[in-house]
Specification:
Elements lengths: L3 E11 L5 E12 L4 E5 L6 H8 L7 E6 L2 E2 L5 H11 E4 L11 H6 L7 H5 L1 H11 L15 H13 L5 E5 L7 H17 L3 E5 L3 H4 L4 E6 L2 E4 L2 H15 L6
The structure holds adenosine-5'-triphosphate (ATP) and magnesium ion.
Magnesium ion binds next to helix 1.
Length: about 250
């Protein structure tokens, strides 16, 4: 059975001038347990919107999202919150860390909804996870005192701390240098395989995409499978065409 599945999913919004913006069109996508999928696509192509639907943070305009065979649209809010909290780890493009709270408090936060040992030992579990992302010396620092790459690693530690069945990562290496990015992706891969979790990664980086087993490209809201070579060429060309003068 699939872990999460989208069937005939569309997403559109009404803009202030009353025109309709079609963000996603006719998306069919099945993610199995332990699957490893990458999604590439230009800025504005709908990648984060798609990830929010996979993570059950947003609902589609049409079509169905199901988790382990259950239609998400028919679940009550409390069940949905529990399901997400227990099973989904998000690495958001903008990190979404709590300001004024230490790295340790940020990473322990998802465990405050857990039961038993996970709850009682939450500080130790969070500290271990921060150690794995190389931040054991920054446990007490709030996000505003951390660099972009350090904040990204805190966000990754927070996403992984409950060993979710589904890890959704939106540009997880976007703020990192090549070496740190490689180390962080290895960590994401390791933890995903330890817990047999599925990992869906949105990325502009072909080396990150290359770690996945299946590759997709999102273009103007349409999702299509791609061979990596093609994804590489299109992304590289797209990046060059899109880069403003003087950049790179
Ligand atoms: N709630 C909304 N209301 C209006 N427009 C929206 C809304 N959410 C997303 N959009 C638009 O939908 C398109 C897709 O947005 P999305 O954030 O999914 O793109 P993306 O592929 O993640 O881009 P990036 O690579 O820049 O992060 C964009 O043009 C965005 O402006
Ligand atoms: Mg995005």
């Amino acid at each position: 059975m699939s872990l999460v599945a989208l069937e005939g999913v569309t997403k559109h919004v009404l803009l202030p001038d009353d025109t309709r913006l079609d963000i996603l069109r006719g998306i069919d996508l099945e993610i199995g347990a332990g699957d490893h999928v990458s999604i590439v696509g230009r800025s504005g192509s709908g990648k984060s919107t798609l990830l929010n639907l996979l993570g059950m943070l947003d609902s589609p305009s049409e079509g169905t999202v199901s988790f382990r065979g259950d239609a998400v649209g028919r679940m009550g809010q409390a069940k949905l919150d529990r399901l997400r909290g227990r099973n989904v780890g998000y690495v958001f493009q903008q990190f979404n860390l709590l300001p004024g709270r230490s790295a340790l408090e940020n990473v322990a936060m998802p465990l405050s909804y857990a039961k038993g040992r996970e709850f009682w030992a939450r500080k130790t579990i969070a500290a271990d996870m921060l150690d794995r992302v190389g931040l054991s010396h920054r446990l007490e620092s709030p996000p505003e005192q951390l660099s972009g790459g350090e904040q990204q690693r805190v966000a990754i530690a927070r996403a992984l701390v409950r060993r979710p069945a589904l890890i959704l990562a939106d540009e997880p290496t976007g703020a990192l240098d090549v070496e740190t990015g490689g180390a962080v992706m290895t960590l994401l891969d390791d933890i995903a395989s330890e817990a047999e979790a599925a990992l869906v990664t949105i990325t502009h980086d072909v080396h990150v995409a290359a770690r996945a087993r299946r590759h997709y490209r999102l273009e103007a809201g349409v999702l299509a499978p791609v061979e990596l070579d093609l994804a590489f060429r299109e992304t590289a060309l797209g990046a060059i065409a899109e880069a403003p003068a003087g950049v790179q």
